[in-house]
Amino acid sequence: MHNFTYHSPTKVIFGQGSVPKIVPELQKAGISRVLLLTGGKSVFASGLYDTLIKLFQEARISCETISGVQPNPRLSKAREAVDAARKSQAQAIIATGGGSVFDSAKVIAASVGSGHDIWDLITRKQKVTDALPIFGILTLSGTSSEINDTSVINNEETNDKMPIANPLLYPKVSIVDPSLQYTVPLQQVRYGGFDTIVHVLESYLATNDTAEVLAEHAESYLRRVMACLSTLPEKLTDYNTRAELTFCATYAFSGWCWVGRSKRGDFSSHRIGHALSALYDMPHGVTLGLLLPNWMEYVLEKGLNRDIFTRFAVKVMNVPENAADPAREGIEALRAFIHSLEMPTRLCEVGITAKDIPALTENAARTLPFGSVIPMDLEKITAVFEKSL
Amino acid sequence: MHNFTYHSPTKVIFGQGSVPKIVPELQKAGISRVLLLTGGKSVFASGLYDTLIKLFQEARISCETISGVQPNPRLSKAREAVDAARKSQAQAIIATGGGSVFDSAKVIAASVGSGHDIWDLITRKQKVTDALPIFGILTLSGTSSEINDTSVINNEETNDKMPIANPLLYPKVSIVDPSLQYTVPLQQVRYGGFDTIVHVLESYLATNDTAEVLAEHAESYLRRVMACLSTLPEKLTDYNTRAELTFCATYAFSGWCWVGRSKRGDFSSHRIGHALSALYDMPHGVTLGLLLPNWMEYVLEKGLNRDIFTRFAVKVMNVPENAADPAREGIEALRAFIHSLEMPTRLCEVGITAKDIPALTENAARTLPFGSVIPMDLEKITAVFEKSL
Prior knowledge:
2 copies of one chain form a homodimer. The first copy, chain A, is an alpha/beta fold.
């Protein structure tokens, strides 16, 4: 077991009907003026926006709204919100949405608190010295942004996408009501669930050197998310199924899964997958299904990580311990699982062929260096894409 | 899965050699004057005290020491520390010890921060409005006080023992270095490990209604602590064994084990066991071994909780699913495990007989009401003691 630091200060209020609990949390913190930050239409269509406005009115909390935060959140929208927060003297940001809204709320809070432009903070020209408190209401599981201190923002002027992390950016409180996600379409829930699986796997498969109790935690996340996804079509509005998926999505990427490991993980599937999103506008979850099993095969063929791949096969994928090649059978079982979610596992299934690989590789290589099990380069990224054909 | 709030804001710095990391944490918080609070002799005998004083001197952090905090920490000692903290204008409390030192640090921090006497805060005559930050170094696992917001203090003038809990009392940082506990004698480590098991079991056995992923977490804590205790005699200074035991002890009682349950747990074994400690000066872990399996038998005979007791037997104690009476065999297996730790499971083994039960019952009943599976009263406490003969 390796040394670690674990810090997860966000207070999580979890469960059906929890939205009104935001009011006493704001009151306890002495907050009476807020900036409400939302995404596009769904928060209005679902009635959540009206609910919040009514709650704030009843509690005499004045509220300014900035809506229209997009996936891959943009700098210009965040800057607009900073101006609004300053003008209205907001004491807190209320992030109501998915990862992009939480990510935006973090840089807005830092910019208002520190008195510097967002991009200067992200590029470290200026320091984050203070931040407005963030109170969140999660409407779409994904990045665990609701309980971490990290934000990724797109500068659409320079075409840069850059992360920032700072302990001042942990949300103070995050309200996670799984029933707010009932209206998300089946296939999108599957993509999100598979993203949760990969968040766990990218740590779990990278090393085999944490405490047994923590390895077992990871395995129970994996087994349970898979089990819930398997019955999802009949259980799209079954509270316990959705609650377990939501719970796992929030905590899977909280840092818990890399506690005690010599490496945080190998995030090559995520990094290489971004190229498929960039060039083919493919959902994030689909890119992971296309790449992860093939990255695993590539690693195995290099003679690496057989022990932990075998453990994964036996403990998660139910491959018999005495199988001829359990590590490889585990990968096959994972592919079958991905197919069962009506997701592809080969690039040919989505019409991508060998001639497309150079452009994909060039795009994926932009964020090098990455890869802790196999440090990637142009040649190796090409090899992973070729394996995925 | 039931609604829950989970909040665990303490930053845990875990691992061998982590003690010096307290200095940058204090510096980041702008702290240059501290009150160092310790227990009796071990912190001096081990050299940890000298290490800390040297670290503080090198970092120009001025330090006042109050030592001699006892198990079941006393109000008078805590008041003495409040005076010292005020006089030296300490900006933080450094708790260096086990649960009693952390518990004391919390009320000292609250008293200095709020400007009120400790007992007035505990009895709610005055409110905790602020608290000095607490930075801890754990030298003995037990109560999870290093990551919770709770303190229990003995008023030796009135013979009262009372708890206080407040979110301002979470330690800011806790340094948990398992190797600091190498010098704890084998039998004491076993008692502590069994206490960890019971902390998990008192939640786990009380209800069967949380998410499957959380039930599996609890089971992996139980299996792993049992496995580590089983090999402990040969592995008293094996880092991975001690690290896993320490990790489980810290997180077992952090609130994680009752997340998603309709009830936090049934703490009757702890409550009734306190009478054995009070009247026979028996180690806490021993009292739990004497009571828990017998409380379980009592519950089972009332026709309650068979499902979760069966699950415990199969998933934790390796009882075959098709056993004649798996729930009861699970209890027998637990008794055998307790015996394997050289701990008693019957009062007769420690010389307590039927004639001693009235006094024990009277003592245990002082903290009524307790018991969520079976609400206890005089008659029922007597019955549990009789079962334990």
